[in-house]
Design a protein that fits this description.
By secondary structure, this protein is of the alpha+beta class. It has 5 helices and 2 strands, in the order ααβαααβ. The protein has one domain. The mean pLDDT is 92.
Length: 100
């Protein structure tokens, strides 16, 4: 549930804007930017997610050997979905400007 909770759980633009207004920000601008994420192999995004995001701490909290096991499992899942070659998928981010 970690990925749903953070960092990807905070995606509702209206809720984010409401929280910013409650915190005293005004003149909010929000733009959703869509791009493609590309990697030369399934291991690259697996390493990125498991070892290069806050997810790493969640994995390591379950045991010292879990990091490599989780990375391998993620690479296997990505391979099952995209094959053994290059990986290409949609990504997006909300860019929010708030003035105080």
């Amino acid at each position: 549930m970690f990925l749903r909770r953070t960092p990807y759980g905070y995606h509702n633009k209206e809720a984010i804007q409401q929280e910013l207004q409650q915190a005293g920000f005004s003149k909010l601008e929000c733009e959703t930017i869509a791009r493609r994420s590309r990697a030369s192999s399934p291991s690259q995004p697996a390493i990125g997610f498991c070892q290069g995001t806050p997810l790493r701490g969640e994995i390591e909290a379950r045991g010292a050997s879990c990091l490599q096991e989780a990375t391998d499992a993620a690479a296997e899942a990505i391979t099952a979905r995209f094959g053994t070659g290059a990986v290409d998928g949609k990504i997006q981010a909300h860019v929010i400007l708030a003035y105080r």
